[in-house]
Please model this.
Amino acid sequence: MPSLPPGLLAYRAASFLLAPAVPLLLRQRLLRGKEDPARLGERLGHPSLPRPDGEIIWIHGASVGECVAALPLIEALRGNLNRTILITSGTVTAAAVLASRLPACVLHQFAPLDTPGAVRRFLEHWRPKAALFVDSEIWPNMVIEAHARGVRLALINGRMSERSYQGWQRAPRTARALLSRYDICLAQDRETAERLRMLGATRVELTGSLKADAAPLPAEPAKLEALSNAIARRPVLLAAQTHPGEDETILPVHDSLRRDYPDLLTIIAPRHPERGAEIAMLCGTRHVVRRSTGILPDAQTAIYVADTMGELGLFYRLAPFAFVGGSLIPHGGQNPLEPARLGCVVLAGPHTENFSDAYDAIFHAQGLGRVHSSTEITNLARRLLADPADAKALGALADKGAETLAGAVEKTRAAIEALLVGHART
Model:
């Protein structure tokens, strides 16, 4: 492997020199609720668990979305009894979700911060045979240090937006030095596969999105029954995973639809639950209830702000259709497979490049779904509310569209197993 380009040398030097300030950074994050006080050592590479005997496969996902996407792959890779799966994440919310959904035999640690010392301590303790980085996780020190120790490296469920691609193009030697260290890159879509090749990845395969194979989002039966009883027979407008700038579009939709459906309940589930108070303020004089307060909607509630984590499965089960956020603004769209898998018709704006294949498949199956304004959302929502049987049939088609994308877990598992038994890197 050639020597590191100046950009990476500078990054490694800066991360080494700034390492003494990392504990202060962690304390600041702790005060904002972004770190677990009992597990700060893990962020510095100090393990909180012993290393088990046998082969370890390390999977790293940044936050909830990447970690949840990896769950079906974890199940597929657990077949080898002399193998342990270690998953790392970078957020406390991801850790909380994994704590409730991981099998007991799968280990979780917080990912070490990307300083040379923290990464080395982590690798020296865990000694993984392979490291699988989910989605777009490319941390220079992790990649360089793991590669130097002979760890088999894979980018799985790989995704690279046009914006990220353009950013990497401004540092082509750095991109090539990092991507060429991966033994294999498994891409979600053709655009990502081509971008990775152009940036220097030496082996790229198209496997599709792991999220297409994920189990439907769960919902606690007692919570589902309580919320269903509270809503009763009221028509529901659901806006899920919204970002700033989108709630302001949904509220006029609510107002327009209330003229025809006076008892309409609009549920807004923001992508970031901490925005609950902000959304409640946007609602103005509309009667609003925030779920984080523990209060259920009643007959007077016009807007129900679902500012909690891990409950989207509830709302997708209770609404016949959903506007999926991150799509009216240039963010790229949130995951449309989650509502589709629960028979919920998908509506979304023009910016859906994060899940382009999924949106294309679902919209093709439904025959509708693309919207550009509050007027278009209103018109489509009015049609779906007026004919519940049609909405249910379209939801079933959305599910079928999502099913056409399945198969990524098996393709990914096969590629990783082949990687593990391959010849040693030279």
In short: The radius of gyration is 23 Å. The CA atoms of residues 114 and 141 lie 6 Å apart.
